[in-house]
Design a protein that fits this description.
The chain has helices spanning about 5-30, 30-60, 75-100, 110-135, 140-170, 175-200, 210-220, 255-270, 290-295, and strands at about 225-235, 240-245, 275-285. The N and C termini lie far apart (about 55 Å). Helix content is about 70%, strand content about 10%. Helix 8 (about 255-270) links the parallel strand 2 and strand 3 (about 275-285). With about 300 residues, the protein is mainly alpha-helical. It has nine helices and three strands; from the N terminus they run H-H-H-H-H-H-H-E-E-H-E-H.
Length: about 300
């Protein structure tokens, strides 16, 4: 089992445990903050299970039907995860408003406080584990999962604080107010997860510094005259790069292939955590104008006669 698949299995198990503890205490105590945290953990469990199968599919090699692999399923998973988090945040806000309007009291404060302390300790250990795996693999799904549980860590701390204040002041509206704040924070945290997933689905280019480094590697090779039509994207697992490089018109194909391999080797050194699919194109002259015309469906005859 790969580290990222193992990480999703661990997070699913932890979420299941926290659901049982917090849901039991939340229902018994009537605490909207604890119940909101339990609902969030229930969604965590479902999302982590989905992430396990998403990673499993994304690690499959390209085949006859999916020539570029299935890496983008990770981006789909992160968008779904972010959406689920947003919905849970909205539901928490609804519960908080309901409690404020009906002024219901929170019971079993001591067991609720102990349950949240337990939840914070377990979630903290899980977050540290997920952050380590995320750093090692640079996997989008694990990164989203780590961010999600990090958000849970802060929300659990807020729940604990609210319960402590209710215990000290006997003002039960504090529980609902904190629940409202947690809901808003959860929605805010989901934004980054959703945006990153959408950017991958829309084939956003690699980071600007990475693209600049790739361009520098191509242009500084002593036997490359120039380059153009550099395009990059990622699916979260594999970085895709294609470009046209201008070589001597009379250069043998074997020599051009050697140059491409040298350039590709240097590009792959930029990121060891992801796979690379690099597609170079050999040109005897700069034909960027022709490429642009083809992209926009314009007849090449409109460009005039190309001098060789």
């Amino acid at each position: 089992m790969s580290p990222q698949k193992k990480a999703t299995a661990v997070s699913t198990s932890v979420a299941t445990l926290l659901v049982f503890v917090k849901l039991t205490i939340g229902i018994a105590s009537g605490s909207v903050a604890v119940l909101a945290s339990a609902i969030d953990s229930l969604l965590d469990m479902a999302v982590s299970m989905f992430n396990f199968f998403a990673i499993k599919k994304s690690e499959e090699d390209p085949d006859d039907s999916y020539h570029y692999g299935k890496g983008k399923i990770q981006a789909i998973a992160s968008v779904i995860e972010g959406t689920v988090v947003t919905v849970s945040g909205l539901y928490i806000i609804y519960l908080a408003i309901e409690k404020l309007l009906h002024e219901s009291a929170t019971k079993l404060l001591t067991p609720s406080i102990l349950a949240m302390i337990f939840s914070i300790v377990v979630t903290y250990i899980l977050v540290q584990y997920l952050l380590r795996i995320s750093k090692e693999t640079d996997n989008l799904v694990i990164k989203a999962d780590a961010l999600h549980y990090k958000t849970d860590l802060w929300s659990n701390a807020a729940v604990l604080l609210s319960l402590g204040l209710v215990y000290l002041t006997d003002i039960h509206a504090i529980d609902a107010i904190f629940g409202l704040g947690i809901g808003l924070y959860i929605i805010y945290s989901a934004y980054e997860i959703i945006v990153e997933g959408i950017e991958i689905l829309l084939d956003k280019a690699l980071d600007g510094k990475m693209v600049a480094s790739i361009g520098e590697i191509i242009s500084t090779h002593p036997e490359v005259t120039s380059y153009h039509w550099l395009k990059t994207r990622t699916d979260g697992t594999t970085n895709f790069v294609e470009f046209h490089m201008v070589l001597r018109p009379d250069m043998p194909l074997l020599e051009a292939h050697r140059i491409a391999e040298e350039v590709e080797d240097r590009i792959m050194e930029l990121d060891h955590k992801r796979r690379w699919m690099i597609t170079p194109h050999f040109d005897p002259y700069d034909d960027e104008e022709i490429n642009t015309a083809m992209l926009h469906g314009k007849p090449l005859s409109d460009l005039g006669k190309v001098s060789h």
